[in-house]
């Protein structure tokens, strides 16, 4: 069961989080070019895959529960950073994209780039914690 849950967790992370990180990063460039069709597509990708991204922590917690490592510091740090990434996406990236679609001022692109970069950085740290697992006794 552990291998199945872990496989689903990793697959969900790749399929759900990957497109959001790429689309969020591409949106500011589309905004600078005033490429409305691209902006609409990238925003839709961000919204749809953000909803699918809920599976990542759910499957991760299920996997950790089966493995008996729910109290591990690296796991708790990863969970905190995942929540932080969700907050950045839900309260900064997506609303800024929606505002840019409603009224696309050119000055919004740098801020969107920064918030997308912060979102991507948070996920990168989570991935490193998942791989390195500092202090883990389950082997790395």
Q: Please, could you describe this protein's structure?
A:
This protein has 140 residues and is mainly α. Helices cover 83% and strands 0% of the residues. The chain has helices spanning 2-32, 36-52, 55-67, 73-102, 108-132. Helix 1 (2-32) packs antiparallel against helix 3 (55-67). The longest helix has 31 residues, at 2-32. It starts with a helix and ends in an 8-residue tail after the last helix.
Order of helices and strands: HHHHH
What is the CA-based Rg, rounded? 17 Å
Largest sheet: none
Low-confidence stretches: none
Mean pLDDT: 92
Percent of residues in beta strands?
under 5%
Shape: elongated
Total count of strands: 0
Would you summarize the structure shown here?
This protein has 140 residues and is mostly helical.
Fold topology:
Blueprint: H1 2-32, H2 36-52, H3 55-67, H4 73-102, H5 108-132
Task: Output the keywords.
single chain, mainly alpha
């Amino acid at each position: 069961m552990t291998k199945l849950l872990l496989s689903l967790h990793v697959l969900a992370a790749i399929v759900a989080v990957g497109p959001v990180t790429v689309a969020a990063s591409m949106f500011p460039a589309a905004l600078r070019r005033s490429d409305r069709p691209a902006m609409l597509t990238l925003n839709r990708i961000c919204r749809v895959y953000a909803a699918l991204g809920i599976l990542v922590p759910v499957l991760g917690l299920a996997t950790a529960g089966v493995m008996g490592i729910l109290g591990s510091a690296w796991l708790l740090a990863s969970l905190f950073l995942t929540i932080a990434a969700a907050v950045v996406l839900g309260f900064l990236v997506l609303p800024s994209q929606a505002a840019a679609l409603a009224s696309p001022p050119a000055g919004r692109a740098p801020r969107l780039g920064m918030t997308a970069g912060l979102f991507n950085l948070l996920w990168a740290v989570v991935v490193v914690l998942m791989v390195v697992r500092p202090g883990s006794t389950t082997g790395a």
